[in-house]
Design goal:
By secondary structure, this protein is an alpha+beta fold. The protein has one domain: Pnp Oxidase, Chain A (Roll), CATH 2.30.110.10. 27% of the residues lie in helices and 35% in strands. The protein has a six-stranded antiparallel barrel with strand order 1-2-3-6-5-4. The longest helix is centred in the C-terminal third of the chain and has 15 residues. It binds flavin mononucleotide. The site of flavin mononucleotide (FMN) has 13 residues, from β2, β3 and α2.
């Protein structure tokens, strides 16, 4: 892998370019990423702490973000759901290699309002809705066939009826308290800015790369 060494040359980041509100700064970077038209969801690495104290990371799709925080959907009884129930401190990591950018976000996770989860669930395909019902996410299963049989049987039973959202599936919102924006630069002299929440405002610090 020796030849895979990257030099980052595309962009720079100056303190005067940074929006005083990291949520607005994030929206700007998200727009830049969406403009690339990669036609993919906004994947993000979500880290929680497991019951043995280990950090535990997995990818989820961020489905929305606003003034309040970052929303993703999952099974509330999954490992991540259990981990969030026991400790709602979590972090998100966005890596956008095409832009040579990384954003880290730390915060507290809460369940989104039921109506928000209901609305999102109804936007999904019947196949995905059935998948949410029949998959006891993170539990051990015997075979793939068991899963597919359950999925088929569920869809057969439901017919044309509307599939309601199961109570154990829905959205979480990570409410941010800290952000770090990273822009790759040549010679490993990257630009890094850390935002820490100070009541209503945010303090910005440049960090050594
Ligand atoms: C690109 C990508 C997107 C994913 N999006 C989601 C998602 O939005 N929600 C989800 O529950 N799992 C998603 N997954 C699967 C998770 O990474 C993970 O396997 C699953 O949620 C179980 O995690 P857990 O056992 O730690 O709870 C995604 C995986 C990938 C690779």
């Amino acid at each position: 892998m020796a030849g895979l060494h990257n030099e980052f040359t595309k962009r720079t980041l100056k303190v005067e370019d940074m929006n005083p509100d990291p949520r607005h700064q994030f929206s700007r970077w998200l727009d830049d990423y969406i403009q690339l038209n990669l036609n993919d969801g906004i994947a993000v690495s979500l880290s929680t702490i497991d019951r043995e104290g280990f950090p535990s990371s997995r990818t989820v799709y961020m489905r929305d973000c606003d003034e309040k925080g970052f929303i993703f959907y999952t099974n509330y009884n999954s490992n991540k759901g259990e981990e969030i129930k026991a400790n709602n401190k979590a972090s998100l990591l966005f890596f956008w290699p095409e832009l040579e950018r990384q954003v880290r976000v730390w915060g507290f996770v809460e369940k989104v309002e039921k109506e928000i989860s209901d609305a999102y669930f109804q936007e999904r395909s019947k196949g995905s809705q059935a998948g949410a019902w029949i998959s006891n996410q993170s539990a051990e299963i015997a075979t793939r066939e068991t899963l597919e049989n359950m999925h088929r049987a569920f869809l057969r039973n439901v017919g044309d009826k509307l599939i309601p959202r199961p109570d154990f599936w829905g959205g979480y919102r990570l409410v941010p308290i800290r952000f770090e924006f990273w822009q790759g630069r040549p010679s490993r002299l990257h630009d890094r800015f850390l935002y820490s929440s100070r009541g209503e405002s945010w303090q910005i610090a440049r960090l050594a790369p």
